[in-house]
User: Fold this.
Amino acid sequence: MLATESLTIRFGGHAAVDGVSCAFEKGTLTSIVGPNGAGKTTYFNLISGQLPATSGRVTLNGQDITGLSAPRRSRLGLGRAFQLTNLFPNLSALENVRLAVQVKSGKALDLFSRVATHRELTDRAMVHLDAVTLASRAQAVAATLPHGDQRKLEVAILLALEPEIFMFDEPTAGMSIDEVPTVLAIIANIKKRGDKTILLVEHKMDVVRSLSDRIVVLHQGKLVADGKPAEVIASDIVREAYLGGAADG
Assistant:
Protein backbone atom coordinates (compact mmCIF):
# COMPACT_ATOMS: atom_id res chain seq x y z
CA MET A 1 0.00 0.00 0.00
CA LEU A 2 2.83 2.39 0.93
CA ALA A 3 6.44 2.11 -0.20
CA THR A 4 9.70 4.02 -0.22
CA GLU A 5 12.31 3.33 -2.87
CA SER A 6 15.93 4.36 -2.22
CA LEU A 7 14.56 7.27 -0.20
CA THR A 8 17.33 9.71 0.72
CA ILE A 9 17.70 13.16 2.22
CA ARG A 10 21.01 14.98 2.65
CA PHE A 11 21.77 17.96 4.81
CA GLY A 12 25.06 19.24 3.45
CA GLY A 13 27.25 16.16 3.21
CA HIS A 14 25.29 14.18 5.77
CA ALA A 15 22.67 11.63 4.69
CA ALA A 16 20.04 11.67 7.46
CA VAL A 17 18.08 8.99 5.58
CA ASP A 18 20.21 6.98 3.20
CA GLY A 19 18.65 4.90 0.42
CA VAL A 20 15.84 3.34 2.46
CA SER A 21 13.61 0.97 0.50
CA CYS A 22 10.67 -0.48 2.40
CA ALA A 23 7.06 -1.48 1.69
CA PHE A 24 4.17 -1.47 4.16
CA GLU A 25 1.15 -3.69 3.62
CA LYS A 26 -2.47 -2.96 4.41
CA GLY A 27 -3.65 -4.31 7.76
CA THR A 28 -0.18 -4.43 9.35
CA LEU A 29 1.55 -2.51 12.12
CA THR A 30 5.24 -1.82 11.57
CA SER A 31 7.41 -0.34 14.30
CA ILE A 32 10.38 1.74 13.18
CA VAL A 33 13.08 1.73 15.84
CA GLY A 34 16.71 2.62 16.31
CA PRO A 35 19.04 4.69 18.50
CA ASN A 36 19.07 8.43 18.93
CA GLY A 37 19.71 10.16 15.61
CA ALA A 38 18.99 7.05 13.57
CA GLY A 39 16.73 8.95 11.17
CA LYS A 40 13.35 7.61 12.27
CA THR A 41 11.50 10.90 12.54
CA THR A 42 13.24 12.24 9.42
CA TYR A 43 12.05 9.14 7.55
CA PHE A 44 8.52 9.87 8.77
CA ASN A 45 8.89 13.47 7.60
CA LEU A 46 9.88 12.29 4.12
CA ILE A 47 6.93 9.91 3.89
CA SER A 48 4.36 12.44 5.11
CA GLY A 49 5.76 15.33 3.06
CA GLN A 50 7.15 17.58 5.79
CA LEU A 51 10.57 17.32 4.12
CA PRO A 52 11.46 17.03 0.41
CA ALA A 53 13.55 14.02 -0.57
CA THR A 54 16.98 14.56 -2.10
CA SER A 55 16.43 11.41 -4.14
CA GLY A 56 14.26 8.29 -4.21
CA ARG A 57 10.49 7.90 -4.26
CA VAL A 58 7.45 7.52 -2.04
CA THR A 59 4.51 5.65 -3.55
CA LEU A 60 0.97 5.18 -2.26
CA ASN A 61 -1.16 2.51 -3.90
CA GLY A 62 1.26 2.56 -6.82
CA GLN A 63 1.04 6.34 -7.28
CA ASP A 64 4.24 8.37 -7.02
CA ILE A 65 3.55 11.01 -4.36
CA THR A 66 7.14 12.16 -3.89
CA GLY A 67 6.45 15.63 -5.25
CA LEU A 68 3.18 16.18 -3.40
CA SER A 69 2.79 18.51 -0.42
CA ALA A 70 1.91 17.24 3.05
CA PRO A 71 -1.75 18.42 2.74
CA ARG A 72 -2.11 16.64 -0.62
CA ARG A 73 -0.72 13.44 0.87
CA SER A 74 -3.10 13.80 3.80
CA ARG A 75 -6.07 14.01 1.42
CA LEU A 76 -4.86 10.81 -0.24
CA GLY A 77 -5.04 8.98 3.10
CA LEU A 78 -1.77 9.59 4.95
CA GLY A 79 -2.45 10.55 8.57
CA ARG A 80 0.38 11.76 10.81
CA ALA A 81 0.62 12.29 14.57
CA PHE A 82 3.76 14.18 15.52
CA GLN A 83 6.43 13.63 18.14
CA LEU A 84 5.61 17.14 19.32
CA THR A 85 1.96 18.13 19.44
CA ASN A 86 0.57 19.87 16.35
CA LEU A 87 -2.64 21.60 17.48
CA PHE A 88 -4.53 24.88 17.13
CA PRO A 89 -3.51 26.10 20.59
CA ASN A 90 -6.16 28.82 21.00
CA LEU A 91 -9.10 26.63 20.01
CA SER A 92 -10.89 24.27 22.36
CA ALA A 93 -10.34 20.54 22.23
CA LEU A 94 -13.78 20.15 20.64
CA GLU A 95 -13.06 22.82 18.01
CA ASN A 96 -9.76 21.15 17.09
CA VAL A 97 -11.44 17.81 16.47
CA ARG A 98 -14.53 19.32 14.84
CA LEU A 99 -12.31 21.03 12.26
CA ALA A 100 -10.83 17.64 11.39
CA VAL A 101 -14.32 16.13 11.10
CA GLN A 102 -15.34 19.04 8.89
CA VAL A 103 -12.31 18.59 6.62
CA LYS A 104 -13.06 14.89 6.26
CA SER A 105 -16.74 15.49 5.52
CA GLY A 106 -16.03 18.24 3.01
CA LYS A 107 -18.71 20.42 4.59
CA ALA A 108 -18.02 24.13 4.89
CA LEU A 109 -19.59 25.94 7.82
CA ASP A 110 -20.85 29.49 7.49
CA LEU A 111 -23.70 31.64 8.78
CA PHE A 112 -26.12 29.95 6.42
CA SER A 113 -25.21 26.37 7.34
CA ARG A 114 -28.00 24.31 8.81
CA VAL A 115 -28.00 23.93 12.58
CA ALA A 116 -28.28 20.18 12.03
CA THR A 117 -24.95 20.21 10.17
CA HIS A 118 -23.24 21.92 13.10
CA ARG A 119 -24.77 19.41 15.51
CA GLU A 120 -23.77 16.42 13.37
CA LEU A 121 -20.15 17.55 13.16
CA THR A 122 -20.06 18.27 16.89
CA ASP A 123 -21.53 14.86 17.74
CA ARG A 124 -18.96 13.10 15.58
CA ALA A 125 -16.16 15.13 17.15
CA MET A 126 -17.36 14.17 20.62
CA VAL A 127 -17.19 10.48 19.69
CA HIS A 128 -13.49 10.87 18.92
CA LEU A 129 -12.85 12.88 22.09
CA ASP A 130 -14.59 10.18 24.10
CA ALA A 131 -12.37 7.54 22.48
CA VAL A 132 -9.31 9.24 23.96
CA THR A 133 -11.02 9.97 27.31
CA LEU A 134 -11.19 13.73 26.69
CA ALA A 135 -14.94 14.22 26.45
CA SER A 136 -14.96 15.96 29.82
CA ARG A 137 -12.32 18.43 28.59
CA ALA A 138 -14.10 19.27 25.32
CA GLN A 139 -14.38 22.98 26.08
CA ALA A 140 -10.83 23.36 27.42
CA VAL A 141 -8.49 25.48 25.30
CA ALA A 142 -5.87 23.19 23.76
CA ALA A 143 -2.94 25.27 25.00
CA THR A 144 -4.13 24.87 28.62
CA LEU A 145 -4.27 21.09 28.50
CA PRO A 146 -1.49 19.06 30.16
CA HIS A 147 1.02 17.61 27.71
CA GLY A 148 -0.45 14.11 27.99
CA ASP A 149 -3.92 15.40 27.14
CA GLN A 150 -2.52 17.34 24.19
CA ARG A 151 -1.04 14.11 22.84
CA LYS A 152 -4.40 12.39 23.24
CA LEU A 153 -6.11 15.30 21.50
CA GLU A 154 -3.80 14.93 18.53
CA VAL A 155 -4.73 11.25 18.32
CA ALA A 156 -8.43 12.24 18.37
CA ILE A 157 -7.79 14.61 15.45
CA LEU A 158 -6.06 11.83 13.55
CA LEU A 159 -9.00 9.49 14.20
CA ALA A 160 -11.38 12.17 12.91
CA LEU A 161 -9.48 12.41 9.62
CA GLU A 162 -10.04 8.64 9.07
CA PRO A 163 -6.79 8.05 7.13
CA GLU A 164 -5.89 4.82 5.39
CA ILE A 165 -2.40 4.98 6.89
CA PHE A 166 -1.80 5.99 10.50
CA MET A 167 1.67 7.33 11.31
CA PHE A 168 2.38 7.62 15.04
CA ASP A 169 5.66 9.29 16.07
CA GLU A 170 6.31 8.29 19.70
CA PRO A 171 2.63 8.68 20.65
CA THR A 172 3.24 8.06 24.37
CA ALA A 173 6.18 10.47 24.75
CA GLY A 174 5.70 12.74 27.76
CA MET A 175 2.68 10.87 29.06
CA SER A 176 2.25 9.67 32.60
CA ILE A 177 2.13 5.94 33.26
CA ASP A 178 -1.63 6.20 33.80
CA GLU A 179 -2.22 7.86 30.42
CA VAL A 180 -0.20 5.49 28.23
CA PRO A 181 -2.72 2.58 28.16
CA THR A 182 -5.42 4.78 26.62
CA VAL A 183 -3.35 5.61 23.54
CA LEU A 184 -1.99 2.07 23.20
CA ALA A 185 -5.54 0.69 23.34
CA ILE A 186 -6.59 3.06 20.55
CA ILE A 187 -3.70 1.91 18.36
CA ALA A 188 -4.46 -1.74 19.17
CA ASN A 189 -8.12 -1.21 18.20
CA ILE A 190 -7.16 0.37 14.88
CA LYS A 191 -4.90 -2.62 14.20
CA LYS A 192 -7.64 -5.08 15.18
CA ARG A 193 -9.92 -3.71 12.46
CA GLY A 194 -7.45 -5.07 9.92
CA ASP A 195 -8.16 -2.50 7.20
CA LYS A 196 -5.57 0.16 8.03
CA THR A 197 -1.80 0.41 7.74
CA ILE A 198 0.01 1.61 10.86
CA LEU A 199 3.57 2.94 11.15
CA LEU A 200 4.85 3.48 14.67
CA VAL A 201 8.07 5.21 15.71
CA GLU A 202 8.68 4.08 19.28
CA HIS A 203 11.59 3.50 21.64
CA LYS A 204 9.70 1.65 24.40
CA MET A 205 10.43 -1.96 23.53
CA ASP A 206 7.56 -3.34 25.61
CA VAL A 207 5.20 -1.29 23.43
CA VAL A 208 6.94 -2.46 20.26
CA ARG A 209 6.73 -6.11 21.31
CA SER A 210 3.06 -5.94 22.21
CA LEU A 211 1.80 -4.17 19.08
CA SER A 212 4.10 -4.94 16.15
CA ASP A 213 3.66 -7.36 13.27
CA ARG A 214 7.07 -6.29 12.05
CA ILE A 215 10.06 -4.23 13.15
CA VAL A 216 12.23 -2.09 10.90
CA VAL A 217 15.51 -0.85 12.37
CA LEU A 218 17.30 2.28 11.19
CA HIS A 219 20.87 3.24 12.10
CA GLN A 220 22.73 6.27 10.77
CA GLY A 221 19.97 6.70 8.20
CA LYS A 222 20.26 3.18 6.79
CA LEU A 223 17.86 0.25 7.11
CA VAL A 224 19.84 -2.40 9.00
CA ALA A 225 17.17 -4.93 10.03
CA ASP A 226 13.65 -5.82 8.96
CA GLY A 227 11.56 -8.76 10.13
CA LYS A 228 9.31 -10.36 12.72
CA PRO A 229 9.60 -8.83 16.20
CA ALA A 230 11.09 -11.91 17.87
CA GLU A 231 13.72 -12.33 15.16
CA VAL A 232 14.75 -8.67 15.09
CA ILE A 233 14.86 -8.25 18.85
CA ALA A 234 16.92 -11.44 19.20
CA SER A 235 19.46 -10.25 16.63
CA ASP A 236 22.84 -9.55 18.22
CA ILE A 237 23.52 -6.47 16.11
CA VAL A 238 20.13 -5.00 16.97
CA ARG A 239 20.13 -5.90 20.64
CA GLU A 240 23.63 -4.63 21.29
CA ALA A 241 23.87 -1.60 19.04
CA TYR A 242 20.44 -0.35 18.03
CA LEU A 243 17.91 -0.99 20.77
CA GLY A 244 19.73 0.56 23.66
CA GLY A 245 16.69 2.48 24.88
CA ALA A 246 17.55 5.80 23.28
CA ALA A 247 14.86 8.23 22.20
CA ASP A 248 14.69 9.46 18.63
CA GLY A 249 16.19 12.68 17.38
Summary: The chain has two domains: 1-74+165-172+196-249, 78-162. Residues 245-249 have pLDDT under 50 and may be disordered. The domain at 78-162 is CATH 3.40.50.300 (Rossmann fold).
